[in-house]
Amino acid sequence: MRQLISPHRLWQLAIDAAIVAAAWWLAFQLRFDHGPNLIYSRLLDRTILLVVGIKLIVFIAFRLVDILKPWPINRSQKLSGGLGITIDDLLAAGFVNLIWLIPAFR
């Protein structure tokens, strides 16, 4: 007889449930009766804007590299079937990652 949920998935569900329960408890412990402090509100807004902005810039850079296909990436298109497409996308993502990390090492 086949199991409906594997033991591995049960552990994942248990850990996810524990994280949700801890987050729920923490939210009630940190609740603000008069709203959050203005400093925390601004910090949260700016953090969200920064994260969304970085993700947008990286996505646009990935699409540009994927469309323009610089030298090592364009050769991967010659591979047969879906392997060429997959390798193309992986190389484009790695290329953008290297471009993104260059300023960190200056």
List the helices and strands and how they pair.
Layout: H1 7-29, H2 38-68, H3 71-74, H4 81-101
Helix pairs in contact: 2-4
Explain what the structure shows:
- The structure is a single chain.
- With 106 residues, the chain is mostly helical.
- The protein folds into two domains: 1-31; 35-105, no CATH class.
- The protein is 75% helix and 0% strand.
- It contains four helices and no strands.
- The protein has helices spanning 7-29, 38-68, 71-74, 81-101.
- Helix 2 (38-68) packs across helix 4.
- The longest helix has 31 residues, at 38-68.
- 3% of the residues are buried.
- The model has no long low-confidence stretch (mean pLDDT 81).
* Beta-strand proportion: under 5%
Helix content: over 70%
Please compute the radius of gyration using only Cα atoms: 22 Å
> How would you describe the oligomerization state of the chains in this entry?
single chain
Helix/strand-derived class?
A: mainly alpha
Order of helices and strands: HHHH
User: Mind summarizing the main beta sheet?
Assistant: none
Number of strands: 0
Overall shape: it is flat
- Low-pLDDT runs: none
Count of alpha and pi helical runs:
4
Our count of domains comes out at 2
The N- to C-terminal Cα distance equals 59 Å
**Quick check: average pLDDT?**
81
Quickly describe the structure.
With 106 residues, the chain is mainly alpha-helical.
